[in-house]
Amino acid sequence: MCGIVGYVGDGNVYKILINGLYRLEYRGYDSAGIALGSAGKINIFKTVGKVDNLVNFCKDKDTDCTFGIAHTRWATHGAPSDCNAHPHYSEDGNIALVHNGTIENYKLLKEALEEHGCRFHTQTDTEVLVQLVSWIRHENQCTLVEAVREALKQVIGAYAIAVIAKDDPDTIVAARKQSPLVIGIGDNETFLASDATPFVEYTKDVVYLEDEQIALIRKGKPLKIFNFENEESTINVKKLELSISQLEKGGYPHFMLKEIFEQPNTLLDCIRGRVVQGGKKVVLNGVNDNKDKFLNARRIIIVACGTSWHASLIGKRLLQDMCRIPVEVEYASEFRYSNPVITPDDVVIAISQSGETADTLAAVEIARKAGAFVYGISNVVGSSIPRNTDSGTYIHVGPEIGVASTKAFTGQVMVLTLLALTIAELKGTMTQLEIEEMGQWILRIPKIVEEVLGLAPQIERLSLIYTYARNFLYLGRGYSYPVALEGALKLKEISYIHAEGYPAAEMKHGPIALIDAEMPSVIIAPNDHLYEKIVSNVQQVKSRGGSTIAIVTKGDTEISSIANHVLEVPKVPEMLSPIITTIPLQLLSYYIAINKEKDVDMPRNLAKSVTVE
Ligand code: G6P
């Protein structure tokens, strides 16, 4: 949801900023822009479309400079256009600003500035902010930091900003509230970005800016951080655990395919050190260190968005089955405005791959204020959700760059499985033997996933038959119902085919009316305790002329004899089946999108990290 990069130092500023934008492009790709500064001069170049367009645009331009800021946009206020692209600048051209987030009171601020004679040239909320900073600076004859601080005091909304001025060379002022910003401290150079990926090859020393902090980044001078009361904050330097190879495609045509195929390894990383003694014991430190909270939990509420919400639905079943604790799952965006009843006896689990989703972060805030114990499950180390929760677990699947989530989903489901097993052991709701049996199965999962990935050529062939279907139905029951939702979401996201996930038995209450020869159904039907039930659902589709693709357990005969196509996966315990059955669905959507020549890694209108509500 918009990517910001900034750089001050002796390196090639233009190159560093452009490479940074490429790394952050997953956050939004409607338009891109750059502001290149040197003493008394700022050149701004911006274009609609992806970073490639910006690079072409800049080919014959003066990109010589000593400091700069850049931005890749996911439009909120104002359509994607050259004019609405960031950086935005003050009317006198002195100040340039990039912004990630939304300024809720921008209309009021704009009217006030218009009364003072300011004129506006874009439809964005960001232009209001840069004009406000400029106006305050003029009126008060103050420094850039002071003007930014005074402007932000008037702002309602969420933001991460970077600001530069012609008359203040080799300086960047940055600030954040509810949108991430991280500063990289190198040798005589300082980087700023929405996440650490733009500067991973230059430095591992990072400082995560906190909400309502303002950073003053200057060439050759130490970093300074202030709060809104102008008090200097202590600088807490952390070590980054990220390598450049994790950010490359490694021979795959797309990040999404790489990430699908990485799953045997990412799942191994996710369980490493957590399933120990040959599977006899499951240890999740975040849970073991907070035993009392989980043992006394009256109920668990899981909040999340998108794919993470689907993982949460699986988590609900796991926690209920293994731990016998009541669990509610809420969309974070609904939860935050639902006047929720939360008590200090509740445990709230927030699940977010990026750790930055605005709605999930807001839900965390509400739960903490209500006194609940808040547990985060995230992938991005140091992101806002882990930093704002009482405890938590990282899924450790490495950076996920493809916008449609794949390896993060299986990592989340795996962590939820470990969480449920750990609590079950503490509560005594499972026997030692049952826990050991699950632990041993979990250790086998990476190899089983590898086997399932062997279905890729069969799925690629199958995808050719269904590439031009206009609608799909995904059906599942029990643990396979959230898998159906996730399969449908994956197809929608990257192939733009309408797809609906449904509990298979609910189909007869409405969606069955849609079934005809043009509407294929994907049925997730592993051999679990609802298998016989779903057989009749397959028959209902068939008897109405619908074609069926079924995900079944190896050796299946019943559904295999009715369905048009079957994809066989190895047998695993029912509670582990979502990790296995989801893999063929990821591959099916990938190949269909490829057949349709869609941009699978950067699907239209989407962004990976949604930092606005
Ligand atoms: C966006 C992404 C989805 C993701 C969702 C929640 O919509 O495109 O892939 O599932 O945000 O993101 P989170 O980082 O909180 O898991």
Could you walk me through the main structural features you see in this protein, from its secondary elements to its overall organization?
There is one protein chain. This protein is an alpha/beta fold. The chain folds into 3 domains: 3-244, Aminohydrolase, N-terminal nucleophile (Ntn) domain (Glutamine Phosphoribosylpyrophosphate, subunit 1, domain 1); 249-453, Rossmann fold, CATH 3.40.50.10490; 454-601, Glucose-6-phosphate isomerase like protein, domain 1 (Rossmann fold, 3-Layer(aba) Sandwich). Helices cover 37% and strands 23% of the residues. The chain has an 8-stranded antiparallel beta sheet with strand order 3-2-4-1-10-9-11-14, with helices on one face. A 6-stranded antiparallel beta sheet has the order 5-6-7-8-12-13. β2 and β3 form a beta hairpin. The N and C termini lie close together (11 Å). The mean pLDDT is 95. The protein binds 6-O-phosphono-alpha-D-glucopyranose.
The helicity comes to 25-40%
Q: In the residues, how many domains can be counted?
A: 3
Give the low-pLDDT segments.
Answer: none
Structural class: alpha/beta
Bound molecules: 6-O-phosphono-alpha-D-glucopyranose
Strand order of the largest sheet: 3-2-4-1-10-9-11-14
Overall shape: it is globular
Largest sheet, if any? 8 strands, antiparallel
Count of helices? 20
**Average pLDDT taken over every residue:** 95
CATH topology of the largest domain: Glutamine Phosphoribosylpyrophosphate, subunit 1, domain 1
Number of strands: 26
Could you tell me how far the N terminus lies from the C terminus, measured between alpha carbons in angstroms?
A: 11 Å
The top level CATH class name of the largest domain: Alpha Beta
Gyration radius, in Å: 25 Å
